[in-house]
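Handout, section B. The chain below has 186 residues.
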Amino acid sequence: MSTSNTDDVQIEAASEYASQEDCFDRLWTPHRMAYVKGDTPRARHGQECPFCLAPQKTDEEGLIVYRGQTAYALMNLFPYNSAHMLICPYRHVSRYEDTTVEERNEISKVTADALRTLREVIAPDGFNLGINQGEVAGAGIAAHLHQHIVPRWSGDANFFPIIAQTKAVPTLLGETRKKLQEGWCE
């Protein structure tokens, strides 16, 4: 190992570490640097926002499961898992604290209704719920608030996304949307 001595401090050459093992495996993802640098296109206010466009389409075209007064439920076009749903206010608002009392109440109600519907129709073992607030927190579309509901089953995780850049989603969006819409629980 090559070292240099500066004021009695031993400094090891970084090149020596390339062959050192530790307890971590590494998944190198240089393509993600575009997100770190902010070089990716983001939805902007108005017509380009998919959450503003969806309610203007038919339920089938917009993947909408339920329409309320101030919020609606739709299928995620890029699901993490089967029946991954999103709850959105109709109004183009990015921050939860900027929603109205009516919007927050309905987002909460539609989320609860969606959970009941998912339990009834597809019987998952559990759920991941969450709102990614802002781009730095992982929001793919930070300009329009949306709550994720990701159904989970024991054993649903696998290595396809890591080794094959493939997500195994065993149900089709349209079929799942129709089942959930028909079985919607209020």
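Note. The chain has six helices and seven strands. Compare this with the example in section A.
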